[in-house]
Design a protein that fits this description.
The protein is mainly beta. It has helices at about 100-105, 190-195, and strands at about 5, 20-25, 40-45, 50-60, 65-70, 75, 80, 90-95, 115-125, 130-140, 145-150, 155, 160-165, 175-185, 200-205, 210-215, 225-235, 240, 245-250, 280, 285-290, 295-300, 310-315, 330, 335-345, 355-360, 365-375. The relative contact order is 0.12.
Length: about 375
């Protein structure tokens, strides 16, 4: 934590109590900032007599937007060191607006990012400012993302590998987005040199899951060549770190790997439509990382109320949002990554060869997309 200011002195207006108390926050556990942790402070009263006071805490985001203003009840500090005990339920809190505030109110924790926390101590009798202290706080994961498959230096037998990685730990309170970069390693190149200098064969942003089947539409990997890859994680515009750079070599192309080019594997949901329509035969298959622990995925027939237990989806023909299909299919979910299959073969109005878009809306209101071409 970097101190922005320890005590702001008003030189022209002397206060009798000013400077009698020193505010010294306790270090918060690395990686997390919660509502109750805001009040982990020490107050050192330099005078022999006790003082009746109240304290305020103001929390701002990195752009100085107000997230909360909180005021404690009146309490007494004795001579010497004092450690007041408050909880988020024992203080008066006024919240700001925006996504960060929504996460803070619902989970009691701040999402990963940088914040400014200011304390102000006032006399309960005169409302004079006694002490003030501001500091920067950074909520960040204990460990960055890690690559998992293919292993570093592995020889694989497919030109369409399933790329898998592990999320930062702990995963945080808002969805994590990943960027993947994959390049060919030229002869006599090191893996890091290749990643920094070579044109990427795969450079995709905004990935919501922790795996990616190598896209059939990307430049094809070739037998006998080696490749380097890396994952970078972000949440709410804040960097959560990057993986090491790993490499693998394609030594053979198995016939079975061609299955990845068909409609039989589970696809990745995207953060926005991009015109890449995936061919499917009767069934949509996709991964859903259930970060919020919802238990049900159901079709959105109208504008449903906010429900932390349900994820909603809808399907409509491309360019015709006002004419959605009505599959009314409900699926149970588990926490973590779900493999979801939706059978559209009996849905009224669906047409062979037409383009469709599936839109999934999570409990925060964020939407994910899967574009597909239907075949029976």
């Amino acid at each position: 934590m970097k101190n922005l200011s320890i005590i702001f002195l008003l030189i022209s207006v002397p206060f009798v109590l000013r400077g009698q108390v020193i505010i010294s926050p306790n270090p918060t556990p690395y990686g997390t900032i919660g509502l109750d942790q805001i009040w982990l402070v020490n107050l050192f009263n330099t005078q022999p007599q006790p003082i009746e006071v109240y304290m305020t805490a103001t929390l701002e985001d990195s752009k100085h937007g107000i997230l909360l203003n909180a005021t404690t009840p009146v309490f007494k500090i004795l001579a010497g060191s004092n450690r007041p005990t408050f909880s988020s339920s024992g203080v008066k809190i006024e919240y700001g607006k925006g996504k960060i505030t929504q996460v803070l109110r619902s989970s009691g924790r701040l999402p990963y990012g940088q914040y400014v926390l200011c304390y102000r101590l006032y006399s309960a009798n005169s409302n004079d400012l006694i002490a003030e202290f501001c500091q920067e706080e950074t909520a960040s994961p204990l460990s960055p993302p890690e690559l998992a498959n293919p292993y570093d230096g592995e020889s694989i037998q497919t030109t369409l590998p399933l790329l898998i990685w592990r999320p930062p730990f702990p995963p945080g309170t808002i969805p994590i987005e990943y960027t993947i970069r994959l390049v060919e390693i030229k002869p006599k190149q090191k893996t890091m040199e290749a990643l920094e200098k070579n044109i990427p064969l795969l450079n995709r942003r905004g990935i919501a899951s922790t795996n990616l089947p190598y896209p059939p539409e990307a430049p094809k990997l070739e037998v006998g060549k080696s490749y380097a890859w890396q994952i970078i994680a972000h949440a709410g515009g804040f960097s959560l770190g990057s993986t090491e750079v790993w490499s693998f070599k394609v030594v053979k192309e198995e016939t079975e790997s061609l299955l990845l080019a068909t409609d039989t594997f589970f696809r990745e949901l995207k953060l926005a439509p991009d015109g890449s329509y995936n061919p499917i035969t009767q069934k949509i298959r996709f991964f859903y990382p259930n970060r919020w622990g919802a238990s049900i995925l159901e079709y959105e027939n109208s504008s449903p109320p906010s429900n932390l237990d349900r994820i909603y989806y809808k399907i409509y023909p491309a360019g015709k949002q006002d004419a959605p299909l009505t599959p009314t299919i409900t699926t149970n979910l588990v926490s973590g990554v779900n493999k979801i299959t939706i059978n559209l073969s009996g849905v009224s109005g669906i047409t062979d060869g037409e383009h469709y878009i599936l839109v999934l809306r999570d409990v925060t209101g964020r939407q994910y997309y899967l574009e597909f071409t239907y075949n029976s």
